[in-house]
Amino acid sequence: MKNRIDLRLILDFIMIAIGAVTASFAIEEFLVPCTILDGGVVGISIIISNKTAAPLSILTVVLNIPFLVIGARKMGKLFIVKAAYAMIIFSASLEVFAPMVNATKEYLLAVCFGGVILGIGAGIVIKFGGCLDGTETVAILLNKKFNLPVGQTVLIFNIIIYVVAGFVFDFDRAMYSLLTYFITSKVLDIVESGLNQTKAAMIITNDAKDISEKIYKHLGRTVTIMEGEGLVSGKKTVLYCVLTRFEINELKEIIKSVNSSSFIAVSDVTEIIGTHIKQSGEIKDKS
């Protein structure tokens, strides 16, 4: 069992590296030559790099550090380790691709191909539990505290960045950047199965108490507890929990930490009606 977990973790880090390198290729070979911005910290870094000649690779790491510090206590150690790893690989790859011949200087080609390749890279990173941009970490924390949709929060951040870019460069660049963002988001949607989608996890287990308490402690999510019975396995407890896509990987780690043989089914949720209760205090032992 331990060997299987180790191999899965190694695969995660390999795929995160592939995704980070792919994303950096799109940035340096398609977007930067045409002064087209990515969103979030990378977009801010491109603006600063363009105006000060500071290395883009250094800026992306330095500007992401505060976001990692903010998320360190709330997001779980493995998520932060994977995010930091992805950002370092991304930064190093930017340095490698910077001196190479640019793929194109045609704006439309840069928007289309850059957006698609960037979406593939970012989607792979997120799919395997990493993160390239610190603004996503802040968006997840805001989602946990105020129930603000992660995707919409990231979009608002990026629109602000693009408006600033419009004043710093020109509004044609801002509009190209916004179009690139929508293409990237759609491709990321295909790779990772949903930028804004809420997920529902149904966990069939014999370790309901440990799992539900850890979900509450680490994700700030309550669970609905139901009694069930398997045709062969007998009586089981069924936990139902609504999450964001960013939290699915953390849920998997929680299940692993309990050393449980639980069965988990994850599905998309198209709409939530009513109050979704999130963490508001400590769990009280009612036994």
Describe this structure in words.
The chain is of the alpha+beta class and 287 residues long. The protein folds into 2 domains: 2-192, no CATH class; 198-269, Alpha-Beta Plaits (2-Layer Sandwich), CATH 3.30.70. It is 62% helix and 11% strand. The protein has a 4-stranded antiparallel sheet with strand order 2-3-1-4, with no helix packed on it. α1 (2-31) packs antiparallel against α5 (107-127), α3 packs antiparallel against α4 (77-97) and α6 (134-146) crosses α7 (150-168). The radius of gyration is 20 Å and the shape is elongated.
Q: State which percent range the strand residues make up.
A: 5-15%
User: How many alpha or pi helices?
Assistant: 10
Radius of gyration: 20 Å
> What is the percent of helical residues?
55-70%
What summary fits the major beta sheet? Answer: 4 strands, antiparallel
Number of strands: 4
| Secondary-structure element pattern, one letter each | HHHHHHHHEHEEHE
Q: How many individual domains?
A: 2
Intertermini distance? 33 Å
Main sheet: strand order: 2-3-1-4
Helix/strand-derived category reads alpha+beta
**Mean pLDDT score, rounded?**
83
